[in-house]
Design brief:
It is built from 13 helices and 8 strands. It is α/β, with parallel strands linked by helices. It folds into 2 domains: 112 residues, no CATH class; 210 residues, Alpha/Beta hydrolase fold, catalytic domain (Rossmann fold, 3-Layer(aba) Sandwich). It has an 8-stranded mixed β-sheet with strand order 1-2-4-3-5-6-7-8, with helices on both faces. Helix 1 packs across helix 8, helix 3 crosses helix 13 and helix 6 packs across helix 10. The longest helix is centred in the first third of the chain and has 22 residues.
Length: 361
């Protein structure tokens, strides 16, 4: 009975998405064209990689680019259903602009990418904040830090500020924070761009579907595998602006597809309950940049404005005609402000000048 309900729900989603595919009949051509663009997002060989143990013993995978003795360390925390490779363009720009003066560390959240599979009890934003602290303590125990958080990664950085305020401010090690496409809370009220009636149903219906999906993982995963074009269209319409490169959509769709439905179900309650507005007071004396896509329907621009209101000195960058994945869709809007944060962090160590020439993608 339960499997029938879940299968029916998936079928209903597929039927609705089928209409989207008809409306966007070029999806197959776009995906074929995107498949030939993999080299654009091929990450460089890391300087080193491995695992860091979280406080509950779970292994967290990381990759480092740049020397261990770099004056400044940039730590990247990715979003829900993504992994560390989503920052490939920012890491490339950082290496081109600063060379050995800055190193980057990008890691996979628990249950994401190559990190260990967490139990449901620890699938929380507070645990992700503790995981970020474990990564910092193990890989960058000294020296200035710049923290970059996208979506759920931004929530992770807020959590760290709330639990370890000593890391922030004039005397703290964190010399800059970039929050991209994220939210301080109230995600349960987000409509995802749906009509009013459907948006009202999202609250009570979606948790039930996810709970059932978690209990019938194999059924749902088989259905997901057959609906890759449908997923591509949904990702395109939910995550991006109107003129996105199909290769970017393919990258994000593929990454999301590697995240199990049980992981999605485990983290969903924590995302809906997320509320770190009070933690933002601990960023009052730390340089902060907030980047938001004007067309973001996952973490709407109003959420970034709320963060900016709580951190009055923060710089708010609203990127026009851009959705939730500004770091890939319009990377320059992220790379430029991030470079300024790194320059300021380096200035606390010694005077520095960026390399001449254009930052390459």
């Amino acid at each position: 009975m339960r499997k029938g309900l879940i299968g029916g729900a998936v079928g209903l989603v597929a039927a609705g998405a089928g209409a989207a595919l008809v409306a966007d009949h070029r999806v197959a051509q776009q995906r074929r064209r995107a498949a030939g663009s993999d080299a654009v997002f091929a990450p460089a060989t890391p300087t080193r990689s491995g695992f860091v143990g979280a406080d509950d013993g779970l292994p967290l995978f990381y990759e480092q680019h740049g020397p261990d003795d770099a004056p400044v360390t940039v730590v990247f925390a990715h979003g829900f259903c993504l992994d560390h490779d989503i920052f490939v363009l920012q890491q490339r720009a950082l290496a081109a602009a600063f060379g050995p003066q800055a190193r980057s560390i990008a890691y996979d959240h628990r249950s994401h990418g190559r990190s260990g599979r967490s139990d449901a009890e620890h699938a929380t934003i507070d645990q992700l904040g503790a995981d970020l602290r474990a990564v910092v303590d193990a890989l960058a125990p000294t020296g200035p830090l710049v923290l970059v958080g996208h979506s759920m990664g931004g929530m992770t950085v807020m959590t760290l500020a709330g639990t370890h305020p000593e890391l922030f401010g004039p005397e703290g090690r964190v010399k800059g924070v970039l929050l991209a496409s994220t939210s301080p809370g109230k995600l349960a009220a987000v409509t995802l761009g749906m009509p009013a009636l459907m948006a009202k149903l999202k609250g009570p219906v979606l948790p039930l579907l996810l709970g059932g999906a978690r209990r019938s993982t194999r059924v749902v995963e088989r259905s997901r595998a057959r609906l890759t074009d449908v997923a591509w269209v949904f990702v395109k319409r939910l995550s991006f602006g109107p003129d996105v490169d199909p290769a970017v959509v393919e990258l994000v769709t593929t990454t999301i597809g590697r995240t199990g439905v049980d992981v999605i179900a485990d983290f969903f309650p924590a995302l809906m309950a997320h509320d770190k507005l009070a933690a933002l007071e601990h960023l009052a004396d730390t340089p902060v940049v907030i980047v938001a896509g004007a067309d973001d329907v996952i973490t709407p621009v109003e959420h970034s404005k709320e963060i900016a209101a709580a951190v009055p000195h923060a710089r708010l960058v609203i990127v026009p005609a851009t959705g939730h994945m500004a770091l890939l869709e319009q990377p320059g809007a992220v790379d430029g402000p991030l470079a300024e944060l790194i320059e300021d962090a380096l200035a606390t160590v010694r005077p520095v000048r960026r390399r001449r020439g254009k930052v390459v993608r």
